[in-house]
């Protein structure tokens, strides 16, 4: 059965090369924003130009460059913010807007299912979003790299497990959509990353720890 069409925009906004994503259902014209860290007016303008109504927000993790736009966003439109329960307490927004989620949950954006995948390591509550064949990976996995694991709530062993046991088994045709524009291309097939990304292909935990400087 063919996957239903869906709306996807990748916007590079802010001074830290952040990718902010818009995902939505073309049938209902409902959309969600993923990691609104910067330039909220530009986000809302893009949605208006494309004819979509914002109904939800998702956060892949709590770091400031992915969440700084939440306050102005919520001042402009009242939407729920879906964040993993382990990162929820870090969000400095009205508690009624926070919708705590867990790995394995599926949230509907109109009729578009968004599967949430808990990938701790960069932060305890880091999560990726699987939308049809697109993996919005936040700062867990980059093209040819992975997220830092030297922050206070990071854990390199957890990050290895998230990469090796959770993301590496995904289908090779899955398209990796990272949280920053750190590579020569904005997206890549996961199968290529399995072959070329040393962090994703590390055969053992010790190999990974050496790569990230924690051996």
Compact description:
With 215 residues, this protein is an alpha/beta fold. Helices cover 22% and strands 29% of the residues.
Task: Describe this entry's structure for a reader.
- The protein has helices at residues 40-50, 64-67, 70-76, 156-167, 190-196, 205-211, and strands at residues 7-13, 18-25, 30-34, 53-58, 81-84, 98-101, 106-109, 112-118, 127-131, 134-136, 141-142, 145-146, 175-177, 188-189.
- With 215 residues, it is an alpha/beta fold.
- The chain has one domain: Ribonuclease Z/Hydroxyacylglutathione hydrolase-like (Metallo-beta-lactamase, Chain A).
- Strand 3, helix 1 (40-50) and strand 4 (53-58) form a beta-alpha-beta unit.
For the structure shown, list the relevant keywords.
alpha/beta; 6-stranded mixed β-sheet
Fold blueprint:
Blueprint: E1 7-13, E2 18-25, E3 30-34, H1 40-50, E4 53-58, H2 64-67, H3 70-76, E5 81-84, E6 98-101, E7 106-109, E8 112-118, E9 127-131, E10 134-136, E11 141-142, E12 145-146, H4 156-167, E13 175-177, E14 188-189, H5 190-196, H6 205-211
Parallel strand pairs: 3-4, 4-5, 5-6, 10-13
Antiparallel strand pairs: 1-2, 2-3, 7-8, 8-9, 9-10, 11-12, 13-14
How much is the average pLDDT?
97
Biggest sheet: strand arrangement: 1-2-3-4-5-6
Compute the number of helices.
6
Strand residue content: 25-35%
CATH architecture group name: 4-Layer Sandwich
Q: In the CATH scheme, what's the topology name? A: Metallo-beta-lactamase, Chain A
What is the end-to-end distance? 46 Å
Q: How can the largest sheet be summarized?
A: 6 strands, mixed
Q: Helix- and strand-based class?
A: alpha/beta
Output the helix-strand order.
Answer: EEEHEHHEEEEEEEEHEEHH
Low-confidence stretches: none
Give the C-alpha Rg: 16 Å
Helicity, as a percent range: 10-25%
CATH superfamily: Ribonuclease Z/Hydroxyacylglutathione hydrolase-like
CATH class: Alpha Beta
Shape: globular
How many β strands by DSSP? 14
Number of domains: 1
């Amino acid at each position: 059965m063919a996957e239903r069409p869906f709306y996807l925009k990748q916007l590079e906004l802010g001074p830290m090369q952040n990718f902010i994503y818009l995902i939505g259902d073309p049938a209902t014209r409902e959309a969600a924003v993923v990691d609104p860290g910067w330039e909220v007016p530009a986000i809302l303008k893009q949605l208006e130009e494309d004819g979509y109504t914002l109904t939800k927000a998702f956060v892949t993790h709590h770091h400031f460059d992915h969440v700084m736009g939440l306050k102005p966003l919520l001042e402009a439109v009242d939407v729920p913010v879906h964040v993993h329960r382990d990162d929820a307490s870090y969000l400095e927004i009205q508690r009624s807007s926070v919708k705590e989620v867990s790995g394995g949950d599926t949230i509907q954006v109109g009729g578009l299912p968004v599967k949430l995948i808990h990938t701790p390591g960069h932060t305890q509550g880091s999560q990726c979003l699987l939308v049809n064949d697109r993996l919005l990976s936040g700062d867990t996995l980059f093209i040819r790299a992975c997220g830092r694991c030297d922050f206070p709530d990071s854990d390199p062993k957890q990050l290895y497990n998230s990469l090796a046991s959770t993301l590496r088994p995904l289908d090779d045709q899955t398209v990796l959509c990272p949280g920053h524009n750190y590579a020569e291309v904005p997206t890549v097939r996961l199968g290529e990353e399995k072959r070329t990304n040393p962090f994703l292909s590390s055969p053992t935990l010790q190999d990974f720890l050496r790569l990230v400087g924690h051996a």
